[in-house]
Amino acid sequence: MPVGPSVSLNALKAFESAARHLSFTVAADELSVTPAAISHQVKSLEDRLGVRLFRRTSRGLVITDEGLALVPTLSETFARLGRLLEQFEHGHRREVLTVSVVGTFAMGWLLPRLQAFEARHPMIDLRLLTNNNRVDVAGESLDFAIRFGDGAWHGLQAERLLDAPLSPLCSPAMAAPLRTPADLKDLPLLRSYRPQDWPAWFEAAGCATVPLRGPVFDASTLMAQAAIDGHGVALVPPRMFAREIESGRLVQPFPIAVSTGAYWLTMLKSRPIAPAMSAFRRWLLAEGPGA
Q1: Distance linking the first and last C-alpha atoms of the chain
Q2: pLDDT of 11-33, one tens digit each?
Q3: Are the C-beta atoms of 49 and 3 separated by less than 8 Å?
Q4: Neighbour-count burial of 56, counting CB atoms closer than 10 A to its CB (0-12 exposed, 13-18 middle, 19+ buried)
Q5: With contact defined as beta carbons under 8 Å apart, do 48 and 7 qualify?
Q6: Of 29, 127, 6, 15, whose CA–CA distance to 73 is shortest?
Q7: In 10 A of CB 82, how many CB atoms?
Q8: 0.70 cut: is pTM over it?
């Protein structure tokens, strides 16, 4: 039987809450009503649909197969409605902006400046996700993804944000005996998933590549923390770890740096640019080059 306007929204909400918690009492607390009210709403929905949605047993409330069929759609509908209503505040609509950011850029550049963006755009609800440079912009329904590389990603528009040349960083104790780049051969060299980085740096330093025998990391932030803890020498962008260098936790033993890529703002070429996206893009491009 088709469900028409006579189905109460309160009844649907009462049922969905009771189904999630398998308890009329907990549902009542969540919805700020009495358990009797929840029971009444569920009974009215059962009468309207002509099926039982719950069974009471000695072990508590049990949802029926008919009830189970309703739960996924109702839960998703109420969740989407909640997310929609969250966008409105003081008579204005907040725009949700979802950005995936490579962790190194998030920690070393974006977070220290985020308060300035939020102050300038208080009605943008910025949602940040971190990635290790592997991200599915379409599959994850992202507005933007900030990535490190050469800017060539299939199906994506990429705008260069800033360069971040790589240089060895390590703890002060590990840096103390280093005199020339060749001295690194005696130390564990912490590696990323980009095997070309260390050979490129040794070439820029004018010496032969030494054997790489340190652990491999999928995030520069973890690699830098390992270097701080004395596990080896990390090849990372000093620009992204300025606070660690200023505090003395990391040392840059050699001024030599090599560029193997840059940070890029990427988006689907087919995606229309919403006002929140436009504001975030303008802010990033204005801040990035001179940051």
Answers
A1: 63
A2: 999 999 999 999 999 999 999 99
A3: yes
A4: exposed
A5: yes
A6: 15
A7: 9
A8: no
